[in-house]
Amino acid sequence: ELVESGGGLVEAGGSLRLSCAASGFIFGISAMRWFRQIPGRERELVAGIRSIPDGTGAEYADSVKGRFTISGDSAKRAVYLQMNSLKIDDTAVYYCNAIAGGTDYWGQGTQVTVSS
Predict the structure, then answer these.
(1) What 3-state DSSP class applies to 88?
(2) Which string of b and e fits 72-85 if b means at least 16 CB within 10 Å?
(3) CA 23: distance to chain centroid?
(4) Where are the beta strands (DSSP E) in the chain?
(5) What is the DSSP letter of 116?
(6) Which of 9, 48, 63, 70 has most Cβ atoms within 10 angstroms of its Cβ?
(7) How confident is the model at residue 49 (pLDDT cuts 50, 70, 90)?
(8) Do the bridges between strand 16-22 and strand 78-83 make them parallel or antiparallel, or are there none, so unpaired?
(9) Does residue 53 have a cis peptide bond before it, meaning omega lies within 30 degrees of 0?
(10) Cα separation of 90 and 63, whole Å?
(11) pLDDT at residue 53 above 60?
(12) pLDDT above 90 covers what percent of the chain?
């Protein structure tokens, strides 16, 4: 199970930190990622990490590079997304994703709304 938290309403230029806690996985988690989705559009990859906690293997969408940072805590089996300098275009439902045993797992999503 993946449980996200930390979404909400923020003004443009502000910051939010999303958290995703993983539990109940039988197989080891090989990667954790954040996706986002706007209604009527495909879900897009925002950031991903292959190694927790040193952050190696981190990747970012071009639209968030320099503004978002993904990190993890292996002891807590959690991954975080620090989002700074938020823009109106960042408004979306953000989903946590984990790859374990060759299978994708998804959280329920958390809404992020950036206002002008």
Answers:
(1) helix
(2) beeeebbbbbebee
(3) 16
(4) 2-5, 8-11, 16-22, 29-37, 44-49, 59-60, 68-73, 78-83, 92-100, 103-106, 110-115
(5) -
(6) 70
(7) confident
(8) antiparallel
(9) yes
(10) 9
(11) no
(12) 68
